Amino acid sequence: MTQAQTPYRIKANWLETCNCDPGCNCNFGGFPDHGSCEALIGLQISDGNFGDVDLSGVKAVLAIKWPKAIHEGNGTAAIFIDESASEQQVQGLATILTGQVGGLPWEILATTLTALDGPVLKPIHMNVNGTNSSFSIDGILEAKMMPSKNPVTGEDNEVHIVFPKGGLIWNDGSSGTTSTMNVDYGAVKFDHTGMSGIFAPVEWTNQK
Questions:
Q1: To bridge 200 with a disulfide, which of 127, 134, 149, 173 should be the other Cys (CB 3.0-4.6 Å)?
Q2: Where in the chain does DSSP place strands (E)?
Q3: 3, pLDDT greater than 80
């Protein structure tokens, strides 16, 4: 049971794109805007560790789809980790993301999946720049975020979604949209350009 007791902490940038309308109704009503939930997530760890393994600088991408709301389960996912990560970093991050060592949000999200592929090691291209962030894996997926626009002035709209008491995944998300968002990988295939994009700093741990 050593693995179950391995402590971890992560500070990272969370790049969330999905098939909901901008803002994503899941944050307010608990259910996706269009029946199913299909998402591409980019993750860039700025600081963190899994036990004595340093996770700083590791990049990952998750491609996930659920037939209904996330909490209704039956999700299919693929986890990609940048090939520059060491074997120990890959094992540590994959262990966290699959909920095996507890801690929110992964101990809950992992229970909503019925099929999981990975970790798949690929070169991940990632540019972290708020709601102008982007990430891609050649030949597999691409997501580009852009700020929401003020419909009157045409200027960028800075919109935040805040959970004052803490959200499941993030506490303060900058809401935008997507100029590109598509994936074609096995059972996970979709294209939802022009939908929700959210940039958020995250901090996760399985320690109290």
A1: 173
A2: 8-18, 37-50, 53-54, 59-66, 75-82, 113-122, 125-127, 134-137, 141-149, 156-157, 159-162, 172-185, 188-191, 196-205
A3: no
